[in-house]
Amino acid sequence: MYSDSELYNCKYNQYSNEDRKLILKLFPIDIWVFIILSPITFFGTMKIVYQFLKDTKLFGVPGDSVFVIMIMNGIESMVQFSTAIYVLKYNEAPLKNAFCEITGLAISIVFVISNLNIFVYAAYPLALIYNTLKSAARLLRIFNYSIVCIIILVVIFGHNIVSLTLNGICAISATDSETMDFVISLSYLLIFLLFGTMSVIYVLTLKKLIPKYSTIRRVRGQYLRHYQRFIGFSLIMKFLLGIFSAINLLNCYKFQKTWLEVSATLQNITQALCILGQTIIIFNDSSLKLIFNHSSTADDNNENDMKEISLQQFNVLEQLHKEMKKTQVTSMLAGVQILRRIKLEDVVQYKDLVIQDEQDGSGSNSSQGDLSELMDAFSQPFTLDEIEECLVTNLNNEILQEKLKINQEIQVFSMRCILYAPKIFNYFITLDNIDIEDCFDLIKNSACIDQFTGPDGGKSGEFFFFSYNNQLIIKTMRQSEVNTYKKRLYNFATYQFNNHQSLLNKIYGMYTFERQEQAHSRVHFLIMKNISLGIPRTSILRTYDMKGSEYDREVLAKKPSSDLSKITLKDLDFFKIEQEIWVEDSISKKLNQSLKTDSNFLERQQLIDYSLLVMIIDWNQKEEELQKYLDGQQINVIPSIKEKGIYYHIAIIDYLQRWNVNKSLERQTKKIIKMNMQLDTSAQEPSIYGRRFQEKLINRIVPLK
């Protein structure tokens, strides 16, 4: 017999053939474990992969990670099975041959990608909290593709880097150096320590920040039960793998005891059980089972059952995300209603609130702004003290029921609600005869809330919510926009008071809501007028968003066959389709002057990136209803002289963007990318932006004749 020191060498490829056969015969159990368990794992993963390919709705977040993990588990089970068959056939472990090269490459790719996706799967709750689900999924796909390419290149250009590892499976081996082996093994353990720690933190964070009521409770429970089972099982198995791998490594270099080679067998068995267990947990996911059942009963033709099943998507985290957005919108509507019921005498000052505003780049946080241009204003109806006032109230489920007396079960977040300058906004609400409480009534808006899916604010990522009657819009704001508007609120209020023909789209309130569960998380939003005046979307023929720029300002070139009523067109599209706004000469002159006056005002406020929104609406069927909106607003809603019953709805929107360093860098970057320093980008200095807005847009669409 051999002694331990004579028998044991660190690398299997250093054994003689006779020694290698002896070692493999010591503990053959792992070979049979591979043969028995690997086919089960493989067919289970292929069933799940097939279901993903059959129903692409399963992809997304966290479906992408699960799909990749299942593919990796399937590949690893194939490697385990083929290795076991090789050993049984040749009665020895694989040498440095083609079989070892292929399986070694496969197992190395699997190891990196699978563990990364498990880690990212654990991190998805954090992506939920910070609203980065789509970007997280996109980055994960890029990483998965990249790491496969990198490993393949390493193998192609590397030299003798694939060989047997300490547990008898071919893989990219570390080195024959004791130091490097320990460094790599330590890194392996640290990675899983980080994985385990962050997974626990993510679970606790999700539990803390996701409310435990209403529809969220069901979806939250469905996701968390499966999520915790999968992550918990993976953590335990990875921990055991780390222990057995450490024993194997220490035995290689320190102990050199033959009987401790059982750690290699235990490592193989644990890995086989790990991928099998992960597959079983995924396979038994309740929402995925519903989809399997749907597949087996496809001939049932029961439309109601199919509709109900279709709602149970595997992508429950995204569904949870949507439910949170719906609860946020419900809370915003409820807060607006409650704030409207507080007496205007019960105001407090900004200074009484713990609100830390960011600097807006002007060197001051004052709400007054530059008042010099308003000194000669015809009338100054507002005081600076009124600008500094706000209303504050708390909101929770008990307050909701007490204040609004709603019989239905409606759940809201616990939060503090702030309305800025209530007397100022109330003046314009009363002037325009706006019933905000009715527009944002929770019961009347229930259908709109149910259909709400989240951000749809274009590049900004902000979301819009339209009231049930389409008369008002809630739009979330960035902190920089809040600061910009607060600083210039007195200017805007005074300007719009003295310019009733202004086409600046009316803002009827600016709010900040602070979640109690997230002390530093605030949602800022404003309520503004919807210039369509509540007309059904089927009556909106075309919508144009124009800035006076020509760079990247054409939609139809990319979507030539689109339904024009369902997309927002831009400058070049307008000039091709409409040429100009066809109204009476007297109205055209008045419209031209009002737009230029507004543009000059925005230029003095150092604001840019605003747009002229033009809607072409068919009022033929509801022309009588339109008349109630026309008093004093003829400049906003103008009949076309080309087609009877067709009206132009016009307003300047998105006027809270300041010219700053970021905008300057954006302009220069676009010029460099396009290699054209004369490029007419959207972002320009206020004076240039205003001049272009007037010369290349206003004078073209409403020319003076």
TrEMBL record:
> What's one Pfam family here?
PIP5K
A Gene Ontology biological process annotation?
phosphatidylinositol phosphate biosynthetic process
Q: Which superkingdom does the taxonomy of this entry point to? A: Eukaryota
Question: ATP-binding among the record's keywords?
Answer: yes
Record keywords, A-Z: ATP-binding, Kinase, Membrane, Nucleotide-binding, Transferase, Transmembrane, Transmembrane helix
What sequence ranges are listed for the domain PIPK?
A: 351-701
TM segment ranges: 31-53, 65-87, 107-130, 142-162, 182-206, 227-247
Q: Is Nucleotide-binding tagged as a keyword?
A: yes
Q: Which GO terms describe its molecular function?
A: 1-phosphatidylinositol-4-phosphate 5-kinase activity; ATP binding
| InterPro entries linked to this entry | PInositol-4-P-4/5-kinase_core, PInositol-4/5-P-5/4-kinase
The GO cellular component terms are: plasma membrane
What PANTHER family does UniProt report for this protein, alphabetically? PHOSPHATIDYLINOSITOL 5-PHOSPHATE 4-KINASE, ISOFORM A, PHOSPHATIDYLINOSITOL-4-PHOSPHATE 5-KINASE
What is the name of this protein?
Answer: PIPK domain-containing protein
* Native species: Paramecium octaurelia
